[in-house]
Amino acid sequence: MFGFTKRPLFLIAWKNLKTYPVRIFLTTSSIILGVAVIIASNIFSESNKSAFDNLFSGIYEGVDLVVQPIQEDFAQGFSGDGGQGPISFEVKKIPDNRIQEIVNLPSVRAAWGEVLGFAQFIKIVDGETVLISNGFAPTFGAAWDSNPYAQQWSLVEGQPPTNKKEVVMDVVTAENHNFSVGDRVTVLAGATPASFTIVGIAEFANVGAPGGATFALFEFRTAQALLDSKGEVDLINVVIENNFDINDVKNDITNLDSENLNVINAQEAAAEQADSIKQGLDFFNTILNVFAGIAIFVGAFIIQNTFRILLLQRTKELSLLRALGTSKRQIYRLVISESLFMSIIGSGLGIALGIGLAVAVKEGLQYFEFGLPDGPLVLTTEAAITGLIIGITVTIFSSLLPARKASQVSPMEAIRDSVSTPQRKSLLARLLFGSIISIVGFGVLFGVLYDFLDLPTLSSLQQVGFGAGVIFIGISVVTPSITKPFVFIFDKIYNLLFGILGKLATENSKRTPRRTASTASALMIGLTLISLANVITTSFKAQAESLISEVILADYQVSAANVFASPGIPTGLSEELLQLDEVTKLSRTRATVVGFNDRPLILGAVDETVFDLVKTDDVSGDRKDFLDENAIGILKQTAEREELFVGDEVVLTIPEEGERTFTVSYIFDWTTQPPAEFFVLLENNSFFSDESLDTELYFNVDKKTPELEEKINAIVDEYPGVEIRDEDGLVEEANNQIQLLLNVIYGFLSISIFVALFGITNTLSLSVFERTREIGLMRAIGTYRKQIRRMIFIESSIISIFGAALGTSLGIFFAWSLIQTLADEGFTVFAVSIPQTALWIGISIIAGVIAAILPAIRASRQNILEAISYE
Amino acid sequence: MENIIQATKLTKIYGEKETSVTALDNVDVQFNENEFTAIMGPSGSGKSTLLHCLAGLDRPTSGQIFLKDQDISTLNDKQLTKIRRDSFGFVFQAFNLIPTLTAEENITLPASISGKKPDMDWIKQVVETVDIGDRLTHRPNELSGGQQQRVAAARAMATKPEVIFADEPSGNLDSKSSKELLTFMKSVVEELNQTIIMVTHDPYAASYASRVIMLKDGSIASDLKEPTQEEIVAEVTALTNI
Fold first, then answer.
1. Residues from chain B contacting residue A869 (CB–CB below 8 Å)
2. String of b and e for B115-154 (b: at least 16 CB within 10 Å)?
3. pTM of structure
4. B57, B106, B163, B199: best mutation site toward chain A, by most A Cβ within 10 Å?
5. Hey, what domains does chain B have and what are their CATH numbers?
6. Contact between chains at B77 and A781 (C-beta distance less than 8 A)
7. ipTM of the complex model
């Protein structure tokens, strides 16, 4: 039967796709990946948002009102200052007899107090104490809510805690660290660890444990004692009677003590808290979307390239259509409809893959105990539609130029015998145009760096970024015209290394400079970003290293391992260390929050020796005067801000002491993160000597030996929650954090390399296709299959080295510019990690060879007779 | 004259069952060393198939091919490739040269891929004979069709092969270039002691050969020694008319 259709081209387009599924895959591979990343990031953040919504409504499940203490002005002012290192300051709480008063109100059905503080589980592994925590998440201790209305925690198994020797553990920690009911566990709360029996395992608001935090739940009085809340609670949860208006009850409670009590609506509080966390997640989502954008951008390059390639292979078919009377316009539409079909299929597959990716990421994070609330994965319709639209738009836009080119095919092509090679247009225009763009980019970049250019309304960082972007575009335009000179470098080397096969491979890369360049460009993008990230982090590491060795003069530094879990270091440790003959110098640091001009401020106390152990710079006054009674030292920045000078008097409000007057005797610069803003000498101030905790210890030894190290470690080990580090340890710690960040970035950027791989495969496939006869001839005159494969691999290595070299150089240059821009912020070190750079270039070459496997096999299996026969 | 290559009961069938075509039907043939042999026949007579099988480019369905004493019809791809590289030379109708390599690089290509040093004295002699000494650094697209074919012939001889196979070598050339190439091929056999087996449909080209084998329907129809062009034309006409 002959079918007749009004839309024959649409039909042809559809039949073409049905007949060549591999085409769809090759073309859409990059779009599939790009869409997948968008979808995955969206699912991931949406799911987390809904999980956090559940979590926070879970926290206040069944609670109508929450009673909080009003913090004193300066404490609130302080918390707005941001964390300033380990400090201890007084937070106001609510006396626990207030609970009974609230319950006694006729409008209140139930009320119970919450006690929350820092406590950390400790386990012993092979005789070593290990502090249990999930990454950066806090470790909490809390009171078990025995009130029947309290619904936050529910027991999974066991009993609630009833005495001071019992504890309930959160289910996530119990599962991850293999604890079960009946086990003994050590908990560090405050300064001293104590042993408890696990009597129950509990789940928090159906999410296990919130945000990866660990929870130790104690009997109420025990919690108060352990968590520094004797006779007090942190807040009170209230359930109201049905027949009362919530606002009236709010007033009733506030009226009990309006100066100290703040009553809020629980559901509003839940929404507020969830929102603030969601904003944090949005940032994460933005980063993911940037990576998705990069993948899509690289994908657009590849789609365009692949379309060109596929259409070139189909020259005969298209030209036959032209010969049969199809107009140019119709050919154009044919190609566009094909790309439309492909984009729909590709985006659909992308969405499916995205869901898979989201599941994988979630599982992966759970595997690393990176606690995010549990919950179902959520794919919103908006996300799916966005992914679809982006996929379709990018694909169709990328196919416009190739489609136009295909429609220009001459009907005569069908009759001609040879495989046509693209016409060579002069690359001179490209070279000129690209160079001009690049020069403008370099102009902007150097102009900003050397201060003779300042674009309005942009920060210098943005200006440098703008310059870098322009350079990148310029270089992308120029690459085809520099392909030949670049490959020229390979000629001699490859000739020497691989003989005639090397020569053939280099010649082939030069034959189609545009194609070689655009394939390499896809790889270049990924490598630029990777080497940018690499150099920046390497430089930061080097910076941190030089900074640490410059400013830390002490051989060892002791601090609290987890500032959330323990407020400080028991003073016994410094006494024990001082008893060692080998310890030559030791300085303790303590800190407390004091009031100054009605604002909170951290007052630190140090030993005289601190100036030999931490690098400080004199600004004015004399260090000797600092030793006088009633003398106070002030940080340079604080002195400037408060307009204080040597000789001025300052009045400080000290907790439990009252007002004290000091004379400013010394203004100095503390070159590391300062532990306080005002400093006094420890031995001069009894209110500090009474404190039982140090915040930091610095000490020197006469000679570092392994034996001494062992001795010191043995002493420190007696104090769980305390960490000792030498200079290497500090550097290592800084490096680990940077490396972790870098690895995450590498992970995402690898996707763009993966996308680029498909581009290399496509290009080589075409290259092989175009050389059918050439390869057949080579086989006929005695070239082994192995040699043909090797030739394709060599060709691929040229493309990948080209892309990697360009990308790496650009990345290093951009990183250098960035660091120059940050010089004012104190970033002065520019360092390139040769091993890491070499590693990524190596990975690119290996990736290129992997991408060449299929084309190479295809080339080597070329039928010789088909290639050399003429009809 | 020594027998250098021979086929016994050589059969080649293309396709399967009903659609199958017998290109060669039990062919027995020997070729002598230092002789210029032409294989002729109408389209579909199997002349190209015979050449491809002899040259190890195609595999016979049954029968054997001996290169001197070695049965090459049972070799695997790798062994066959080595034979083609070291013992055979090839001149095809068109697309004989790698476009990215110069004439000289094309001539030494078989030696290059075998990783051996080419015999430069010999190559110089060959290049002189084919008269392309002044074009050696040119790429194929800078050479005329005749020059390209002569470069191909020079490449075919560069490794001193046992047999040179030529598949319509003058098919795409004008009569002047055609004459030059054939003259050269003849002189190569007479003066440089080479062996050439050439497939052609052109009686004029065949007249340069010292022996002409006629194929029809996959079998040998006649085997002429030192025929004149007139004898060949007569024989072709006779074959076509039957």
1. 48
2. eeebeeeebeebbebbebeebbeebbeebeebbbbbbbbb
3. 0.69
4. B57
5. 3-241 (3.40.50.300)
6. no
7. 0.90
